[in-house]
Amino acid sequence: MELEDMILISVDDHVVEPPDMWEGRVPKKFADQVPKIVVQDNGTEAWEYLGRRSTNAGLNAVAGRPPEDYGLDAQAFADMRPGCYEVHQRVRDMSANGVLASLNFPSWAGFAAGQFLRTPDKDLAIALLRAYNDWHVEGWCGEYPDRFIPLGLVPVWDPQLMAGEVHRLAGMGCRAVTFAENPAPLGLPSLHSDHWDPFWAACEEEQTVVCMHIGSSSQIAMTSDEAPFGVSHSYGATRTMGAALDLVFSSVFSKFPTFTVALSEGGIGWIPYLMDKMDNHYAHHRAWTGEDFGDKLPSQVFRERIVTCFIEDPTGIKLRHDIGIDTITWECDYPHSDSTWPTSPETLWKDIGHIPDEDIDKITHLNAMRVFHFDPSPQRSREQCTVQALRAEATDVYTGYHHAPKRGSMPAMAAALRDHVAKV
User: What is the pTM of this model?
Assistant: First the structure.
């Protein structure tokens, strides 16, 4: 296989919600309370909702910006590539990058529907959440069903409503939802509680994938307020480790034995160590802790039920068979600051170009197609899905750098990070 022959499906990208997303989707009685975009004095734009303003932090939409322009400064839509928020331009950017399909997490709405969790009027909250899902499934993914994997929000404040939304989304062809990697910091019951059983049962029935994105608990890993950005950024996967441990040692997987959880943007190189640690613990301590995995080890449960993804992870590729070759997927992370756009194929090839074609196919697209129930074949032949074919469709797309003004200032890095993640 050559680089140009790869088929790339990204299981973790992001959409910046456009200003017109609510139009025609919210009941009239809530018309005066719908979030709206306002221009602030410094030229940035913010969502205004229930008397609060939320800006889009710079690192969330830096595709096409030179790295020296990165920062946490708030942005305006004019500062971003249109592909961040406009679906037709997004597909052109995907093609220019050789990416066939993409699963998109929300931005303003929050990975765990945080904006609606914090909404006091839950009738308004559920109306807006369903409006977001309708827009995402019909107005974003529905424009290009061969290019997007739909991902819905669930009303985390009510497990019965969550179950209902899982069923409603499945009826719309969406069988993936985003949920908190750890609900406890959000003031909700932990993953060790049976509080969530109606939600898990619905995901089991519909075979809906539960995506737990890094940062979805509105917390970041920090050692101190003085620590530089590199500390928290490099430390982030520890949150994903915690989610994996909670899931494996909880009763969730034993009570609901077939649905799948995806640990989004958590990387993979750490997984073999965690598997060894879990198995070691189980061997030494199960006699007194009462933990019982039957005829399995914790590592086996992990491999059977948890899917992981990576952007760049050469160590994980080397250990791919220790991790489980059928559980690994790839992500582009467009338009975030870790994204490899517009050179994702070249960047990925450096890590996987030497491994067998069968492994490449599983990591780049086959695992994602199986896990997320995605099949582009009704619209595209295999030959039309390759890096080479897609890039040939977008030769006129500009992929060079563009500069944008730094419109705001956030000098205290730790405080800025906490403020940003709290909005998630």
Answer: 0.94
Say if 65 falls within a structural domain. no
Residue 22 falls inside a structural domain: no
Q: What is the CATH number of the domain that holds 141?
A: 3.20.20.140
**Reduced to 3 states, what is the DSSP secondary structure of residue 13?**
strand
Considering only 48-52, 169-173, 219-223, 318-322, which range has the smallest mean pLDDT? 219-223
Q: Kindly state the DSSP code that residue 135 receives in the 8-state scheme.
A: I
Q: Using an 8 Å Cβ cutoff, are 310 and 328 in contact?
A: yes
The string of DSSP codes covering 374-401 is ---TTT--GGGGSHHHHHHTTTT---S-
- Count Cβ atoms below 10 Å from residue 258 Cβ, excluding itself: 11
Query: Is residue 19 assigned to a domain?
Result: no
Q: For residue 413, what pLDDT band results from cuts at 50, 70 and 90? A: very low
**Quick one: DSSP state of residue 176?**
E
pLDDT at 408: 52
User: Beta strands of 15-119 (E only): which ranges?
Assistant: 36-39, 45-49, 52-55, 99-105
- Tally of helices (H runs) and strands (E runs) in the chain: 17, 12
Question: What range does the domain containing 191 cover?
Answer: 3-12+87-405
Q: How many domains is the chain partitioned into structurally?
A: 1
How far are the Cα atoms of 16, 40, 261, 410 from residue 45, in angstroms, in the given order?
12, 6, 35, 16
CA 270 to chain centre: 19
Q: Which amino acid is at 246?
A: D
10 Å Cβ neighbour count for 402?
13
Assess contact for 117 and 424: CB atoms under 8 A.
Answer: no
The two three-digit tokens of residue 154, written as one number: 């669930």
Pick the closest to residue 153 from 189, 193, 115, 194 (CA basis).
115
Structural domain includes residue 37:
no
Question: From the CB of residue 330, how many other CB atoms can be counted at a distance below 10 Å?
Answer: 26
* Average pLDDT, rounded, for the chain: 93
